[in-house]
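Lecture notes, unit on protein representations.

Consider one protein chain, 110 amino acids long.
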Amino acid sequence: MAALAAQVVPLTGVAVTFTAAAGGGDTCPTGAGVLLLVKNGDSGSHTVTLATPGTVNGLAIADRAIAVAAGAQVAIPVTSDYRDPSTGRAAVTYDGVTSVTVAVVRALVS
C-alpha cells in the first residue's frame, strides 16, 4: 500500500506526475479540492473503490466504487467523507492494477 501525496495545482497549472497503482491499494489525502486521477491503460475495465469509514445511525455507509473503462481517465473527488479517523487519509483499492496509474491533485485556491 502506497501513501500517495497530493500535487498542488497552482493557478498557472502544472504537469501532473502519475505513478503505478499499488496491488494492495493506496491511501491519499482528503478534503475540498482533492481529486484522485486514474488512468486505465488496460484493454479491460477496472473498478476503483474508496472506503467510506462513516456510519449513519450505527449502519455502515457503502463504499464508493467507480468503473474506469478501458483506455479511459477519470477524476474522482476525495472529500472528507472518505477520511479514516485513525489515519486521516482515504483508503483506495483496485480490482486490478495492470496498466493502471494514479495521481492525487489539490487545487490551490486563492
